Amino acid sequence: MLHQLLRFSLTQRVFVVVMLGVLFALGIRAWFGLPIDAFPDISPTQVKVILKVPGMTAEEIESQVTRPLEAELLGIPKQAILRSSTKYAITSITLDFQEGTDIYWARQQVNKRLSGIRGDFPAGTAGGVAPMSTPLSEMFMFSLENPSLSLTERRHLLDWEIRPLLRTVPGVAEVNSLGGYVQTLQFSPDNSLMAVAGIGMEQVQQAIQSSNINGSVGRMNVGTESLIIRTQGRFATQQDLAGLIVKADDNGIVRLSDLGDISTGHLARYGAVTKDGQETAQALIIALKNSNTADVVKGVKEKLAQIAPTLPEGTDLNVFYDRKTLIDTAVGTITNALVEAVILVIIILALFLGNLRAAFLVSLSIPFAALLTFLMMSYTNLSANLMSLGGVVIAIGMIVDSSVVVVENIVSQLNRKLPLPRLHLIYRASKAVATPVLAGTAIVIIVFVPLLTLTGLEGKLFSPVALTIVFAMLSALLISLTIVPVIASFLIKGENLAPPKFIRSLQRIYQASLIKLLARPGPFVGGAIVAVIISLFLFTQLGKTFMPVLDEGDIIVQLEKSPTISLADSVELDRQVSEALLKQVPEIKQIVARTGADELGLDPMGLNETDMFMELQPTEQWRFDTKDELAGAIREVLQTFPGINFGFTQPIQMRVSEMLTGSTGDVSIKVFGDDIAALATLTDSIAGITGNTSGAVDVNASIIEGAEFLNVHLKPELATEYGLSVDALAQGLRAQVEGVQVSELIQGKVKTPIIIGYQGNTAQQPASTNELENAMLTLPDGRVARVGDVASLSYAQGPSIISRENGNRFAVVTTNVTGRDIVGFVEELRENIHQQISLPTGYTIEYGGEFENQIRASNSLMMVIPAVILLIVIILFSTFQSLPHSMLILLNVPFALMGGIVGLFISGQYLSVPASVGFIALLGIAVLNGVVMLSHFQQLRARSRDLKELVCDGAADRLRPILMTATTAMFGLFPLALATGPGAEIQKPLAIVVIGGLLTSTITTLYLLPMLYYKLENKHGK
Amino acid sequence: MINLPRFLIILCSLPLALQAATLKVADLGELDLRYSQVQAIANYTGPSMAAHVESEEGQAYQLFSPFMVQQLAYQVENGAWVEQGQTVLRMTGSEVHHFIERIEAAQSILSLAKHRYDNNQSLYRQQAISESTWQDIVSQYQQARLAFGHLGHFQELIAAVSESGDSIVLKAPSAGFIRYSTENERSGSEPLLARFIDRQALRVSVNIPVVNASTLSHLSTPECNLQIEHLGQSANGLFVKAWSEAVPQGCKLLPGQQLSIKPGYTTQAYLVPRQSVFRFEQRQQVMLHDGQQLISQPVQIVASQGKHYVITSDTSLSQYEVLASSVGAVKGLLLGMGGE
């Protein structure tokens, strides 16, 4: 088949050239059409349900909403895990489905179950299935600045002018508004006036609801006409509401305005946003899952440019997070590495081939292979991102190998000046090397294909790498057997492709040294073995991590304040911290801090939690060389604010971390059980044991208790007398404390909630237990009673958060591990816990966390590596038809790994998933070099020469291709290893491993392999 | 030189301070620390409540009609001040005519009965008539006198009678604020026509929860402050009626008026900013500023007053300043929070 392909290419050269042009054009089109993102989509098929139940405690929501809904959802097939987190007034349930499950099907299933049970939820439950987004979907954020607008006005602008327009941008799943005040139309009843009028709260509520509607009647035929009739009652203005007649009797009519104040108020706030310490309003654009982030950002920016002139004068849409910046930086880093790699490889080709035409011809394979790769990426819906483009960079050094072999052989054939047609000579030359070229390519591909079987985060991250390398290698193979011979037929004019002078010198030196070593191999072999042993020791000293942290360019500082802090105080502390940071760390351009929950409930933080988003100045303006040093300066400032916990993260890192485990830390110990108090006691004990286990750092027990409630318990004997129910009591109190939405005022596109409440009315809103006790409650019959007279008030402790997994409550202890291997740590910890804690019946413990990922990744790699080696052995055996020869080549592997380990050790990089992938890549390249060397020995062996002479000459012959293969691969990766920009962190360990491994494996291929071959063949000869 | 009052305060609060959490100001880093002087107060204002301008039960002069009302026209506004003898209402109808006839009849009967009584008095003394006959004569006389007297008192209030005799105009029996009777009150055989409330009897009443009644000191309207004079001696369910002093003229309050007023309560308390109070170890606390340290002090919140809380404490706080900013962080510190 290969021969037919070659024959066709050389006989249909014009067609091939035309096809080349078409492929070129298609490739360029594919490149520009590829979705661009910073990361591949690492999220599983995930559906999130967010339900808000105003005023309810976590325990109540759990029993009335979370638990019944979970019971429904657990019946959905194909689900991997069901998690929930219930806090005050909100519950968030997340379903992860099995890989490959269609997201639309999954959402439909969840929606169906949700709507089936919705009727059973408490009144006022709002929300539903969250937008179809991923943790990486938060891709654009801006605050609305205008000093002349109030916070209510800013929020109004965001909600009713900007948000609806942004939602029309293709790819935008939702626009989340945060901060400011949501305007309401508020009726603040005067209990004394209500009492005088003998009107209860329910009567007011009913009057508003029954009046504020337009009813449908039907059609009436009037003569030959048909007239549509409706009843009209909707309020159009605040005055309409004020004029609402609540009661009419012989004593006259009572209007709503007679019973209290009607004013514009605001909804109870669950969160706030500050910019540089001053409160503001913010919008967060969430992209649809699988959308092209770059396009969405572009669309959003265009829409904002359209909106901006229509906004009030002085309004500034202050963009403080633009994912495109990260995409540009990350993709820029990789693209730069790609360009540098191409240039370096071309220079090396020119140097080693010593012929510009040949070098040009080989170099042509790089852009064509890259474009073909992009074309295949486009067809397989692979986005251009840090990982996929990284794969192309890794492949650059290997892409040229097959073309080098073909071109070198073509030139050699042409140099022989045989009396045959030129095209035929090129065909023969190409045909001669077609099989080895295919085998070489197959080895590299086979090395990477098993990576496609990786699961979890590592699978999602490295599948694109493996795929692009496979695409690039296949493209390179196709090009080397089609386009390269054709172009060679036009370009190569019988040049002399003798090795350049420096190669010849190198060959001489190499040959001489090899002769010496063949004569006295002991010290070299011994030295090599010692080196391997030393590298094994170094391996144990390497730091281990699951995945290097990607520098996203921005910093998020997470603050945690005392659990029961009020929103106002929390925001005040944010102001203090923001101002101190801005003053003392000039590298920070602006700080946008978000406290509490967002509008949609996608990130329902407590009032004591703040994410401080820091936009940084360009690095040129920094006083520091690295981001770590800058973080150190920020840390110093934060440490001057005692009583506030803080932590560092980044926008994507934060979301990925939450997505993966729901908790961060190398090891998480989950305790499952029913009783919150028992869980809290157990986690405290486990945290103590964990802290005492060697290697544990940053031990943290989740706070599940700690919420303090004021229980208002209706006195049953009085309740009966007054006809007061618990629900009516709750309604009455809610109106006083938080406000009850009873209807809405619709004015065009603006819907303003109508609230019965006292938000912002400090004179009437209870602000202490005593005041709540003394608050007057309008009873159903219109009489009033003091709350403290009809109900008793008491403080109670309760859970602040209830986490559940697959329908079971759990609490978690997390820890990081340092100075020892995690698996050993977990085993010791497991033993310690088993010995020291006696679990009550029905309680179980599970171990997870990032350790879980590491274990899964290690297990996967432990399966992949033997599989790769086995496949290589099969290929080697089929190539050499000899197991000893195959093993001889495999012997190169430990020495290749040795270089990788030393490379990691010297560079200070950790052993991580990318480093492991680097080791796998190394297997292929190292084996390929061995194949090049050994196959040549075998060819020469067929000519029955003297073994020593054969080995020396053969090795010298192969010096150039082996050095070329190794150096192109190495130099192709140098830009990646040396890159410093955001995005380089993940590929860097991989590049370092491959470069280090190639250095040692090249030495062993050049010396150890000929020596061992000599030894082996000598033994056979004897 | 020892500052004696301060020394005594510190001495008194020493046992509490020993239990209390203490923080050094120097340990609070860059936290914005602002203090507010504790302000001692003797009373505070509670949330508004419904009040009624009225007289206590039995304190108003009630004018009853001895006959059924057919048509009644008040000649002064409800609640208006009227002087004694001032014409206040007109009654019309056949019952009025009957009433006049009844007066005349009663008068004739009385006259007759008196005549008989006078004539028989000497006969009785002479024992010319029997004991039982004399008793009948006396009884008839007394009944006729009472019957006429009953009608006669009402007759005294009649300022004018129409020529036809079916309409009378009545005078006010006493000075006071006139309060019309209600339809129900006018429906009996001897209906209530009006009440006349003396200025000293006009008060503001509030129904106050029994538990708060003892500390209620005054009621405030936009125009005046009215001291609470006394509390009702029986409760109406959960409430008891509190009565103010008599309403002075300048208060612009009208009898029967229902209004929303601000009650004032008496208590020995302190005023501190709302943001200075926090809950720690299951008690409300404030951080007292004492030189270079902050000491936690349990307090009880009584009420809120604008941006302040009215608090009480077991110990005197008047000499202290309380921490009024960064209290959330200070609480975090007390909880052991802080750091990375």
Q: What does this protein look like?
A:
The complex is a heterodimer of chains A (1022) and B (340). Helix content of chain A is 55%, strand content 20%. With 1022 residues, chain A is an alpha+beta fold. In chain A, strands 1, 2, 3, 4, 20, 21, 28, 29 and 30 form a 9-stranded antiparallel beta sheet that branches. In chain A, a hairpin with a 2-residue loop joins strand 8 and strand 9 (225-231). The model of chain A has no long low-confidence stretch (mean pLDDT 85). Chain B has 340 residues and is of the alpha+beta class. Helices cover 25% and strands 40% of the residues of chain B. Chain B contains 5 helices and 23 strands. Chain B has helices spanning 4-19, 94-125, 131-156, 210-213, 327-334; strands at residues 22-24, 35-37, 39-45, 49-55, 61-64, 71-74, 81-82, 87-92, 158-161, 167-171, 176-180, 192-197, 202-209, 216-220, 225-236, 239-246, 258-273, 278-280, 283-290, 293-298, 300-305, 308-312, 321-323. Chains A and B meet through helix 6, helix 18, helix 19, strand 19 and helix 24 of A and strand 4, strand 21 and helix 5 of B.
